[in-house]
Design a protein that fits this description.
eight-stranded mixed beta sheet, 25% strand, alpha+beta, globular
Length: 487
């Protein structure tokens, strides 16, 4: 009798028992961490960013790798930027392999880009500059350590994003000129329809060949009690310059990091606040107003002017941020195979004849410099692989492209992305040269001239945009990624 009653009681209990629903993702703590690594080189090292090589004689300001790590309890990702002109994929891949091995953070959840300062060590051979292998190895370790330290700093956080605007510091540098006024390009042709950096108030200027993107996009994290932890900004400006060519400098990117820290009153915090500026789509954008002459600035003066303006725009956007205790994260990555615009046998033969006249001396003039590029580019394979990445941070989308991307491409991604807002980080996860649109290729100009700095097929941007939009839609539709990588 006792067993029968017990059995009936159990049946009654089981008939009304419902399994507990799994904890919602947002019940897991959202965490963030940030860190920097000093990557300043020795004096005497090769400095690239020009047609001829330079040697570092002075350090004006230290170079850094800056990074932020986010963790929603299921997905962890890292975004970092290196004070460098360009960083090749093999260097970034080596750092990511160490990061994955030592922290279990999957390599494809890490986004690493170059700022594009023209006052940093050469990391890949281009024009007449070649890298220092010892510095490349040093950089790999410092980047990996920076991400590891940011992970060590993970703590409960709030996150938010916003978009400001600074239209006065960006100008399209490609201009259409009056008929018959186009100078010859390095290959002897006058068929180009546009000229890069045509000269301020040039009487032959007609109009810019493309748009600008004035957005100053911001992602920021605070501790739960409101202490600033990190701020990542994005602005589509090539670089600023305005300092001696033999100086080491992080350009306006470094000044911005210092200035935004001042504005947020985030100095001397523990752990230290990290400000960082990433480069947007600035392949055809610089800081020179060719239509109207601007007042001259002393060395480093223009960098400070631009940094102050963009930091003020970022701060204004920051003040309007809606903070979230938890948002979903997602990362999607793919590889795309792209054709290479290799020179013909006739092109190579002509280039070799030009170089023979140089007789081993430093190359002088654009025909000689581009002849050398032609010979080197002939060694490239017919196709190359490029890494594309998309990230989701709540309702924010981020694209990553390993090229110097034209502004109109970034604007198109913003327009078509399912995430509002969206921004693009260029020179990310490798270096594959300039990325004009097919229409801009037809106009010619420096950014299209065949070289190790511009070699992808004419339709490369079309393929890249399509792939990135597909990745963004995947992030938007599921918001789910692997559990791998959490500690």
């Amino acid at each position: 009798m006792f067993h029968k009653q017990t059995r009936l009681l159990l049946i009654g209990v089981l008939s009304v028992w419902v399994p507990m629903a799994p904890a919602k993702e947002k019940d897991k703590p959202f965490r963030a961490g940030a860190a920097t690594s000093n990557i300043t080189p020795r004096l005497g090292i090769s400095v690239n960013g020009g047609m001829s090589d330079r040697s570092a004689a002075h350090v004006h300001d230290e170079l850094h790798f800056r990074c932020i790590v986010l963790d929603d309890g299921k997905t962890r990702l890292a975004i970092g930027t290196i004070d460098s002109c360009v960083v090749p994929r093999d260097v970034i891949d080596a750092a990511k392999q160490i990061i994955e091995k030592e922290t279990k953070l999957p390599a494809d959840h890490v986004l690493i880009s170059a700022t594009h300062t023209h006052y940093a060590p050469t990391l890949t051979s281009v024009f007449q500059s070649d890298p220092d292998e010892a510095y490349r190895g040093f950089l790999v370790r410092r980047v990996a350590d920076g991400v590891r330290r940011a992970i060590n700093n993970l703590a409960p956080a709030k996150i938010g994003w916003a978009v400001g605007s600074e239209p006065n510091q960006v100008f399209n540098r490609r201009w259409k000129l009056k008929p018959g006024t186009m100078p010859p390009n390095p290959f002897g042709s006058t068929d180009d329809k546009v000229r890069m950096n045509p000269g301020v108030e040039n009487p032959n200027l007609v109009e810019p060949a493309g748009p600008i993107d004035p957005d100053v996009s911001v992602v920021a994290v605070q501790s739960r009690d409101g202490r600033p932890m990190a701020l990542l900004a994005n602005y589509s400006l090539h670089y600023v310059g305005g300092c001696p060519g033999d100086h080491i400098s992080a350009d306006y990117y470094g000044v911005f990091a210092d200035r935004i820290q001042q504005l947020l009153k985030a100095d001397r915090l523990a752990p230290p606040f990290v400000g960082m500026m990433t480069n947007g789509t600035s392949g055809d954008i610089n800081n020179i107003n060719f239509g109207k002459r601007q007042p001259g600035q002393p060395p480093y003066g223009q960098m400070r002017l631009v940094a102050d303006a963009t930091a003020e725009a970022a701060y204004k956007a920051y003040e309007g941020i809606t903070w979230h205790d938890w948002v979903p994260l997602d990362v999607r990555q793919t590889k795309v195979e792209l054709g290479v615009r290799r020179p013909s046998e006739a092109d190579v033969k002509q280039a070799q004849e030009i170089l023979a006249k140089a007789k081993g001396r430093a190359l002088r003039g654009m025909p000689e410099i581009y002849a050398n590029e032609t010979v080197n580019l002939a060694k490239y394979p017919p196709k190359v692989e490029a890494i594309l990445q998309a990230m989701r941070i709540g309702d924010l989308g981020i694209c990553a492209i390993p090229c110097e991307v034209f502004a109109e491409i970034g604007l198109e991604l913003k327009k078509q992305s399912p995430f509002k807002p969206t921004f693009t980080i260029e020179l990310a996860n490798g270096y594959n040269g300039y990325l004009p649109t097919p229409e801009q290729h037809a106009l010619g100009g420096y950014e299209t001239w065949r070289a190790r700095s511009s070699y992808l097929e004419v339709d490369a941007s079309t393929k890249i945009v399509a792939k990135l939009l597909a990745l963004l839609r995947e992030c938007h539709g599921t918001g789910q990624t692997s559990d791998a990588g959490l500690k």
